[in-house]
Design a protein that fits this description.
Helix content: over 70%
Number of helices: 10
Largest sheet: none
Keywords: Membrane, Transmembrane, Transmembrane helix
Mean pLDDT: 96
Radius of gyration: 17 Å
InterPro entries: DUF6653
Number of strands: 0
Shape: globular
Order of helices and strands: HHHHHHHHHH
Strand content: under 5%
């Protein structure tokens, strides 16, 4: 995802994070609702997908970035743009990010199975696993950012 400096800063708004967090659950409910409302499930699905793309662009820059959510976004920004920023990410962060992404992916696959076949146990277990992986990943990105927080290029991101 290519984002400008301004969009990254708005993406770091804790309100942006807080309103992105429930999207997987809402997406799950919207897809599951096809069992109750048929093809009308596409309406909430479209709204959720639109919000997913609009979210990092509609919030203002945060008043303060001295919070977990903002630092998680900053860590992710460093990880995603490491070649552009010419920074070497410590191997322990790279391995952890990969492992946690795989955990989230495993949860997403289980969740997808549960939603497709309307199987509650797989749906709940997959959703929990995907959330666990994602939130742990964000926490790891906070750690990564803290490791780079004294770098002159990134120091001014915290205010």
């Amino acid at each position: 995802m290519r984002m400008s400096e301004d969009v990254w800063m708005r993406h770091a708004n804790p309100w942006s994070f807080a309103t992105r967090l429930p999207l997987l659950l809402l997406l799950t409910i919207a897809c599951w609702s096809r069992a109750w409302i048929g093809w009308f499930f596409l309406i909430p699905l479209a709204v959720i997908i639109a919000w997913t793309f609009l979210n990092p662009r509609v919030f203002p820059k945060p008043r303060s970035t001295r919070n977990w959510a903002s630092k998680g976004v900053f860590g992710e920004r460093i990880m995603v743009n490491r070649k552009e920023y010419c920074v070497e990410i410590p191997e322990h962060h790279v391995k952890a990010a990969f492992a946690l992404t795989m955990l989230s992916l495993a949860g997403a696959i289980l969740l997808l199975y549960g939603v497709v076949f309307l199987e509650p146990l797989s749906t709940v277990a997959g959703c929990i696993t995907a959330y666990l992986g994602k939130l742990w990943y964000v926490d790891r990105m906070v750690w990564l950012f803290e490791d780079f927080s004294e770098n002159p290029r990134f120091k001014n991101w915290v205010y």
